[in-house]
Amino acid sequence: MRSDEGGLRAPTRNIIAWTEADYWNSEKLDEETRRQFDVCHGCRRCFNLCDSFPKLFDLIDQSKTLELDSVKSEDFKPVIDACTLCDMCFMVTCPYVPPHEFAIDIPKLMLRHRAKNFKNGNINLKEKQIAEIDRNGKLGQKIRPISNAVISLKNKPARYIIEKTLNINKKAKLPNFVKPFNESFPINKKAPAYGKKAILFSTCYGSYHNSEIISSTYKVLRHNGVDVSLFYDGCCGMPQLEQGNIERVAKQAKDISKKLVNLIEEGINVIVPIPSCALMFKTEWPLLLSQDENVKMLSENTMDIDEYIIALSEKEGIVEDLKPLAGDITVHMSCHSRAQNIGPKSAQMLRLIPETKVNVVERCSGHGGSWGVKKDNFDTAIKIGKTSAKNIMKYNTKYFASTCPLAGDHIVQISEIEKKENLKPLDAPSHPIELIAISYNLKKNK
Fold first, then answer.
1. Do the domains spanning 197-314 and 329-439 agree at the CATH topology level?
2. pLDDT (tens digit, 9 = 90+) per residue, 69-110?
3. CATH architecture of structural domain 329-439
4. CA–CA separation, 17 vs 264, rounded Å?
5. Mean pLDDT in the chain?
6. So what's the pLDDT on residue 265?
7. pLDDT tens per residue, range 331-384
8. What's CA 37's distance to the chain center, in Å?
């Protein structure tokens, strides 16, 4: 069900009809854009959600008639560019999403514009290079001492060059490259869930930038008796989706789902520790390839790691040797965690830790994937995330976790900028599963 902010019915999503000619028709796209924007103009419920809606409302309010009819279609570009595809307007705020007759879906409308833009060759080379996650990740990982030195905020000459060549803001923190995950850990045969199997999709972020998340997930699952095996065969395609490269995303979906369904047996789930990737498997791929049985099967068998641990605790049971974490926890629920419509599973999971208070912040970090690191977006990304950062800082807990590592790093950077009012800047963020691993004494405490 929707939150109290939205409608009373659960939102449903229409498939993305990208294989049909009408999807690419400029006149029909403009007509649909004006139809949906006119509903938004009459409602304005999303005025403070992100930067897209204020830009749209300013366009209308500064127009000749104060209505949408006097706004030129070419002036919609800043509105489209400001969307991060976070899905919060659709999942949380808008009362007019399907099955309502107005059928408002702003994120998918923005995606349609970007897909048309990409097809017309309007994405520059810089943008395309940033989205080559696996190529960039493998190269950066191979020469990580050099790579990490180059992207460091302290390396001002290098960051100046990166800004000029790749349009990445010189002030934006970028994730370091790490050693790939290469560990073994015994299965706990005494665990209540012993005998279960799972596949851990290690994601591009876990593979190249934070193997501690994969290590913690792997150890926690095996400690709980789950025979988990690792799988990674390329990025889920979220960076390409942000650019509108639908055909590339669909190809990746077909390739990965075909390989994964061969590993999925009855009762075996694919576990994903990064919410953006889980959202792609569960929702975005089926919307693009609604008739592909492999994609549908993968969607039905994918679970966020937090979702899986809660299900394990409610059905088979988990190993009950979790230790309290003194100093308590504040967890940030990222937009793509919330967009999965599964509830605050990370907070539920962390509350399995005894004698440990868990505070929850459910508000946008402002990062938006690759959107927030771009030269022209970074200041806006900082502005949007200030509320989240300040709320987390006010709790002043020892542990800060975010379901999205990029969002967590961004919030920490905001806290360093906003250190005032006697609020202490945040320490490096953890993924919630890392705190479970610490509580199990499977990972070194901070």
1. yes
2. 999 999 999 999 999 999 999 988 899 999 999 999 999 999
3. 3-Layer(aba) Sandwich (3.40)
4. 28
5. 93
6. 78
7. 999 999 999 989 999 999 999 999 999 999 999 999 988 899 999 999 999 999
8. 25
Cα–chain-centroid distance for residue 357? Answer: 25
Model confidence over 285-304: pLDDT tens digits?
999 999 999 999 999 999 99
How many Å separate Cα 409 from the centre of its chain? Answer: 13
Q: For residues 276 and 284, what is the distance between their CA atoms, to the nearest angstrom?
A: 10
- Cβ atoms 385, 411 nearer than 8 A: yes
168-219 pLDDT tens trace: 999 999 999 999 999 899 999 999 999 999 999 999 999 999 999 999 999 9
Query: What would the mean pLDDT of 15-33 be, rounded to a whole number?
Result: 97
pLDDT over 50 at 1, yes or no: no
> At residue 263, what is the residue type?
L
Two tokens, residue 174: 């970028």
Q: Quote the tokens at residue 382.
A: 């900082």
**Torsions phi, psi for 399 (to 5 deg):** -110, 135
User: 197-314 maps to which CATH number?
Assistant: 3.40.50
- The candidate with the shortest Cα–Cα distance to 291, out of 266, 263, 254, 325, is 254
- For residue 24 the two structure tokens come to 């690419």
Question: Rounded CA gap, 122 and 204, in Å?
Answer: 26
Domain chopping of the chain, boundaries: 21-119, 125-166, 197-314, 329-439
**How far is Cα of residue 63 from the mean position of the Cα atoms in its chain?**
35
